[in-house]
Amino acid sequence: MEDIHLHLKNLGFTELEAKCLHVLAECGTQTGYEIAKELGVSRSNVYSALQKLAEKGAVLTSHGEPTHYQSVPIEEIGERVEAELQASIRYVKEHMPKQDAHRSEYFSLEGDVKVLDRIRTELRKAKEEALCDLWAQEAQLLKEELRQVPARGVRLLVSTIGDAALPGGVHQFPHKRDAAWSERKGRKFTLLIDRKLAIVGTRGGDEPTLAMLTEHPAMVELLLNSFWRDVVIHELQQDMGAKLEDKYGKNFKKIIQKYTEGKEKGNQLDDVGKSLESKSGEGKPQENKNGEGESQESKNGEGKLQEGKNESKSNEEKPRAGKASEEKSNESKSGEGKRKKKK
């Protein structure tokens, strides 16, 4: 019953109006008092709701006391609502100001319903080409929209992960990824519509469904190049799968290890080398200090040698001084002798 009320509200009825229509459809002709009693709400609110329903042409009223109410057949209500809605849509399309729909910014969507609805809408709007990279689960949910794309003459290429049975007319490229591709953080998906709109997102796992959409040229080119690389690899594996696996390992594992595991080992060796250089650098200042000590000792040795030379010179000068003193003394005595003889 709640679902019926919800959809009646989507058609433009209030919650109480929807409940009154449901009671009339289920019980037939009723008075306002009987409807209020059935719903357990005040009579004044029920009479107000019934009056609005009559104005909308959804119920018929009788003349007399008490007034009786009868629901118009739901088919008639649906036709009237549809006609009014289509008229409103046409008017809005004609008179709403046009705007540039280029979405160069990055817009985000959250929630499973919002994300899937947006993807379905963009697939329906595709005019020339749609390139999709999807897991089997998402491909199954979008199966009907994917079927309609090539039916409109739009080229559709889908790279799938897992067992995905897609409708005829879809160019499918099964993506061979090993068990390392875990779903723990969600299944990644990408779509490129008319080489103009890029959609990237995740679904499943422990996180909520998220998606980002943009018309930024950088993201569009990135997805386009990535998709064509997948197509090229698919064709190579189809033609030379055994040879490629023998040379490069399953899913090109040897190539990946060459630039990942080897790099990590290289980094470790670099770290060891840097550590050794660091320790060697720490030893060099000590060596310099030792060298400074040796230099100082050398200087001290030179000083001592110089002192020895000075002492030697001093000792040599002392005998000479003595001889000079003796010579002076002798000269003095000789002069005194000469003076005595003259006398």
TrEMBL record:
Q: Where is this region: Disordered?
A: 265-343
Q: Which residues form the Transcription regulator TrmB N-terminal domain?
A: 8-75
Tell me which positions the record assigns to the signal sequence: none
Q: Pfam family example for this protein?
A: TrmB
Composition bias type Basic and acidic residues, residue spans: 265-337
The record's section on InterPro entries has: TrmB-like (IPR051797), Tscrpt_reg_TrmB_N (IPR002831), WH-like_DNA-bd_sf (IPR036388), WH_DNA-bd_sf (IPR036390)
Top-rank taxon, per record: Bacteria
Q: What protein name is recorded for this chain? A: Sugar-specific transcriptional regulator TrmB/uncharacterized low-complexity protein
Species source reads Paenibacillus aceris
Q: In the record, what lineage is assigned to the organism producing the protein?
A: Bacteria, Bacillati, Bacillota, Bacilli, Bacillales
